[in-house]
Known about the structure:
The chain is mainly alpha-helical. The protein contains eleven helices and two strands.
Amino acid sequence: MALFKKRKTAADQEEMSFIDHLEALRGHLFRSVLSIAVGAVLAGVYDDYVIKHILLGPTRPDFPTYGVLCRLSHSLNLGESLCFNELGVKMQSTMVGSQFGMYITVILVSGIVLAFPYIFYEFWKFIKPALTKRELDRSRGVVFWVSLLFFTGVLFGYFVIAPYTINFFSSFQLDESIENRWTISSYVDTIIPIVLGTGLAFQLPLVIFFLAKVGIVTASYLKSVRRYAIVVVLIIAAVITPGPDLISQISVALPLMLLYEISIILSKRVEKQRAAEEKEWS
């Protein structure tokens, strides 16, 4: 009877431990959602700037990327070949609640982007207790590096990939009699995956770094599968950049391959550290 009571008590403790984890997870999720709401409210306060200058920025000839390309064209004696004077983009809304729905989508996505560092911080706080002291020492500054890579990818997607995509689709015509007139929903559904997809794709070095930390991948293995990695990178670039625009796809693929090569360097560094530690222990 006493043994049964002891077993029951142990089972209750395990169940409480699991419930405690769920309670902790709920707290982290609640604070993450709250941070997104705060970011969305902030974006809503400045909605005029967010809509006109950020969301619709790539559709305007005075977008910074177009100015840089035009100056580059003149400096290379290429004339106006890289200048985008008229994009010919016209928007329309064909559904009753389309503009309001896109407004809510843009505000929420803006909130997610603004709150991303805090969201990842909450995620890190949740998994942090499960790590050893050595793992914590090795992962110092992870929130900063994840956030830096994410925002770098977002800016790259917005200032590099999005303008090429918009220019390609605005100038492409099956026939001169067919006018390009986009719906606002199709435009938003094109821009958001480019920006968020590039931001997430730029996490590649950190993902491989942690895989190397736990011994799943090595630098030699990454080198041996480089040819397959190129194919995967090209597929990712095709997914991030909708349409058959090769320039925008190459613009995504080249930085990703560079990040892959950086990942190989990081893996080598991890292996050297592990070898030094094993030598010290032996």
